[in-house]
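Example record

The entry below shows one chain as it appears in the dataset: sequence first, then structure tokens.
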Amino acid sequence: MLHSLRRRSRGFTLVELLVVIAIIGILVALLLPAVQSAREAARRMQCGNNLKQIGLALHNYHDTYKSFPPTGILNGTVGTPTAASPSNRPYHYSWAFMILPFIEQQPLYDSTNKNLPIYIGANGQPQPVCSTQLPAFQCPSALGLNLANDTRNLAYTNYAASEGYHWWTSAVINGQTWSGGAYQGQNRTIDMSGLFTITKYNNFSSVTDGTSNTVAFAEVTSVGQKWGGIRTCGTGQPRANVNGERVFRSAFVWTGVNGTCCESGIYTRPNSTSPSSAAAWWTAGSPHAFSPTFIAAYGINSEWPGADSRHPGIAQVVLTDGAVRSATETIQWHIWAKLNGIQDNETVPEL
């Protein structure tokens, strides 16, 4: 009798289980983009903080030496603005090395023998700083690289200095280059040299376009872009993360590949081989190590010589006044180019 009065327990039917699973799947699908978006927002904020610190270091360097650092030392011939300047070094130290004391890396800076070339130390081998990877130069959204397999043991950076329009000493754009509506119909010749034009020193007085209108640094990814056109923005796509395609920026070693540094037949290569007019010093080929700079001839997210970013639709930049801004990949190319010139006397909208 008592047994018959007990209420029988009943489990879920197959249909009910499938309905619950479907509901959970829908909730996950709805929440996942929000989670990913929140994570990307956090990474973007950290990236912006890194850039802010680099901007502050640039200003502190200027306060100390009364000039900005050169983009890199080529054979010691770049000249010296002051006797105490850290740019009075053998070759091939980059701007990123020179600002190390101003980003709380004084011990790393001091441990480097600056009386010797950065890539040829006392034992004939690259100095340890060459392969010292620093989080301060890494964007959290960018792909992480393995130094031994992906970069020939060169530390890399996701932040590059602006050379201006291209990698020659004088970045002049003529009227024919500007012709056409896409380039605002310019007919005059403009010098689009950047804050870090090769072999030149600049200071605040050099930036006649205004420090709030001039790009000093911008993001670059760990692999670069491909298939984008020159004088375009947003036309490329990321390169594959394989040695045959990857183009990364060497943080502390000025490597070069094109322009005055490597096609003029004047300067020796980082491994001290003789001057050459060959357009390359890619550490003996792939994987390709480019200097920690970019040129504006290729706009944002177009091709490997230009700036690019893993943040959806934008690349973060540091203006010469130290402000961090976001530039969209849909920005008109002529505006991007003018933002990277220090003395072009062109009016540009604020980022």
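Notes for this example: Confidence is low (pLDDT under 50) at residues 78-84. The longest helix spans residues 14-65.
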